[in-house]
Amino acid sequence: MAKDKSESEQAKLAALSPFELKDELIKAAGGGAVERAANVSMLNAGRGNPNFLATIPRHGFWQLGLFAMRESERSFAFMPEGVGGFPRRDGLTERFDLFLRENKGVPGIDFLRGAVSYVRDQLGLSAGDFLYEMCEGILASNYPVPDRMLKLSEIIVGQYLRREMIGKHPFVGEFDIFAVEGGTAAMTYIFNTLRENHLIRAGDTIALGMPIFTPYIEIPRLNDYQLNVVNLEATVESGWQYSKKELDKLRDPMVKAFFLVNPSNPPSVKINDESLQYIAEIVKERPDLILLTDDVYGTFADDFVSLFALAPKNTILVYSYSKYFGATGWRLGTIATHRDNVLDRLLGELPKDVKKELHTRYESITTEPDKLKFIDRLVADSRTVALNHTAGLSTPQQVQMVLFSLFSLMDTPDAYKNALKRLIRSRKQALYEEVGISFEDDDPNQVDYYTILDIEFLGERMFGRKFVEWLLKNTEPSELLFRLAREARVVLLPGKGFGTQHPSGRVSLANLNESDYRQIGRAMRKLIEEYVERYNKDTGSKLDKHAVK
Fold first, then answer.
1. Domain named Aminotransferase class I/classII large: which ranges (predicted)?
2. Using an 8 Å Cβ cutoff, are 498 and 19 in contact?
3. What pTM, to 2 d.p., does this model score?
């Protein structure tokens, strides 16, 4: 079989991040270097950006904005030249009630009424203070104060994280939150502050739970960090769970930190309860171990419990609103740490010369730099310390984050969550039906935001090990992806770029319609059948290319 590309070209492609390789696949599919919205004939299932979004809290955002504008104009009514002022606290709740009555029946109004009621009656916060923070925030008329997160906004978002990340699991103590520009900013800030504060240094060893979101693989290799990496492998054969043997790698005192994505990206499987508890037990033996859990897909799972709930004092929690609320463009994320955490303890145990260095680094922003908490160092470092006074996520972003949180907190039947689960799981069913693979979908840990089409695993299941060995010998790792792109105009991401052990393709189940997934499934099935025909011809075998297993 002729190779699609030369060995040198294959080597260059293998070095690319899957997100950069995606652009090459789009070119092969006829989409050009940048995918155009009008190019409807190309099916890009490589994108994680969902094609659904939460409408009710967005309606609430715009209606709140109209009320805030009315308040601003009221403050400077004597200046008709388009000059407004800050909202006034006195009488704010009464004027808001009037606004709600005047706009009865308008989308978003009932949600806002319920949100204020929930904040007052369920959370015990002042409705007036809440409305003022929201109005000033949505007008973006002031710097974020406090810079880490607006005061009441942090409380409300904290309640949301408790509900979605901790649930009914016992949890002792409180945690702090830093509102950031999506999960990507969270990763950037955390790596940077760990390094700046000497909690990880060049040559140190960290562990990664594989497969994992590609930047977690790429960042430790950069000259900025130069970290050694130990991989903890979850395999398709084990249902994408970590064995005790793999988790025992965390017992090595050389491992300074363990980073994982839960539920995983791309398999979309949450870590089972047994493994979470096993990690928590290891932490008891390794109280100095730093954990980072990126739980962006946790809100799509059934009965999700974060590692943050089981080992809160050792864990940095990263959460993004992007996927669940269809809000990738808003750039909304959070970093949470327990108020009694290993990071602050390790900072206190640093050598005197390092403490002196850090004292100098942070002395311009506090009179007690030695007592500055890790999470507040994150804030300062995010603006190179010198710009700490203007740090913080933009206030309109924080307002939308709060409204998303309240929408979820108020949705006690989980109507929105259950609708999304039905949507993505019906897409998965459609895809696999057309590929011709039957599967058991009763794994309670499956989340299904993505699905991995593992060539080796599925090929062996459908046609046997000899067929798989022939396929791997006669094709390059990216060949199947490029053929799908050129011949069927279907774009998937390579699983290898996320650390999967076998050649595979990541299919996002979030960004296309069910009929599109059926089309993708048929295209894949056609390609599989062609390879079976070639295999039969080359080996003299008589595999049934229409076999369904």
1. 181-519
2. no
3. 0.93
Cβ atoms within 10 Å of 238's Cβ, excluding its own: 12
Say if residue 88 is exposed, middle or buried (CB neighbours under 10 Å; 0-12, 13-18, 19+).
middle
Nearest CA among 503, 477, 444, 27 for reference residue 269:
444
Burial string for 397-416 (b: 16+ CB within 10 Å, else e) reads: bbbbbbbbbbbbbeeeeeeb
Residue 337 has pLDDT above 60, yes or no: yes
CA distance 396 to 461: 51
- The Cα 231–Cα 506 span in angstroms is 20
Q: Which residues are bridge partners to 493 per DSSP?
A: 506
One CATH from 3.90.1150.10, 2.10.109.10, 3.40.228.10, 3.40.50.10470 for 7-41+415-539? 3.90.1150.10
Query: Of 128, 124, 181, 185, which is closest to residue 156 (Cα–Cα)?
Result: 124
**Residue with the two structure tokens 């308040």:** 71
Q: What is the pLDDT at residue 6? A: 59
CA angle 124, 125, 126 (to 5 degrees): 130
Q: What is the DSSP string of 429-474?
A: HHHHHHHT-------TTB--SEEEEEHHHHHHHHH-HHHHHHHHHH
| Domain 151-368: which CATH number of 3.40.50.150, 3.40.640.10, 3.90.950.20, 3.30.420.10 | 3.40.640.10
pLDDT tens, position by position, 164-219? 999 999 999 999 999 999 999 999 999 999 999 999 999 999 999 999 999 999 99
Residue 292: strand, helix, or coil: strand
Chain centroid offset of residue 182 CA: 8
- Contact predicate 258/292, CB 8 Å: yes
What are residue 506's phi and psi, to 5 degrees?
-90, 125
Hunting for tokens 């090595």 — which residue is that?
252
What is residue 36's predicted lDDT score, i.e. its pLDDT? 44
What is the residue extent of each domain of the chain? 7-41+415-539, 56-142, 151-368
User: Using one digit for the tens of pLDDT, what is the confidence trace for 231-273?
Assistant: 999 998 899 999 999 999 999 999 999 999 999 999 999 999 9
What is residue 90's DSSP assignment? Answer: T
Q: What whole-number distance in Å separates Cα of residue 432 and Cα of residue 439?
A: 8
- Compute the distance between CA of residue 483 and CA of residue 246 in angstroms, rounded to an integer: 35
Contacts of 220 (CB under 8 A, 6+ apart): 206, 208, 226, 227, 229
- pLDDT computed for residue 374 by the predictor: 98
* Residues forming a β-bridge with 336: 177, 317
CATH number for the 56-142 domain, one of 3.90.230.10, 3.40.50.300, 3.30.420.40, 1.10.20.110? 1.10.20.110
- Per the CB < 8 A criterion, the answer to whether 355 and 377 are in contact is no
Angle (deg, nearest 10), helices 514-539 and 465-474? 90
Q: What is the CA radius of gyration of the chain?
A: 26
